[in-house]
Amino acid sequence: MSPDGGVPKTSVDTAKIDKRGVVGDRQEDTVHHGSPDQALCLYSLEVIERFKAEGHPIEPGFAGENLTISGLDWFSIEPGARLEIGPDIEAEVTFYATPCSKNAQWFVNGDFTRMLQSRHPGESRLYARVLRGGALTTGDEVRLVG
Q1: What residue ranges do the domains of the chain occupy?
Q2: How confident is the model at residue 31 (pLDDT cuts 50, 70, 90)?
Q3: What is the phi/psi pair of residue 135, to 5°?
Q4: 14-144, which class in CATH?
Q5: What is the DSSP letter of 129?
Q6: Residue 30 dihedral angles phi and psi, to the nearest 5°
Q7: What helix, strand, coil percent values describe the chain, rounded to 5?
């Protein structure tokens, strides 16, 4: 969560999700972030761990993702995929998130393109629209349903 906008996002134990995303979260740059098709920014814990193993000083939330997800085959999730998040929430992946220079600090030599889908397929953050909102708690299961 980032009530003042920007990165990194800090972890919370519970959150409410509505059509606009995480209630109480804010984006610093509303020109490039915050549309309904960007309501949620999702990232894979396994990808973040792989980056850390390469020596990048990145942690969950640092790249601006609202939800850090583990246990899914991140390489197989593409725009159009639907996710059930916890008992209430349904989201549809809309597109791959283009990294910006604010993420340079999390990468060796400032190479934030390390998470650019066109250069490193399957290692990008994903944007999603919220189809059904609700409550979310850390540890809730995320399922790929279509």
Answers
A1: 14-144
A2: low
A3: -90, 150
A4: mainly beta
A5: E
A6: -85, -5
A7: 20, 30, 55
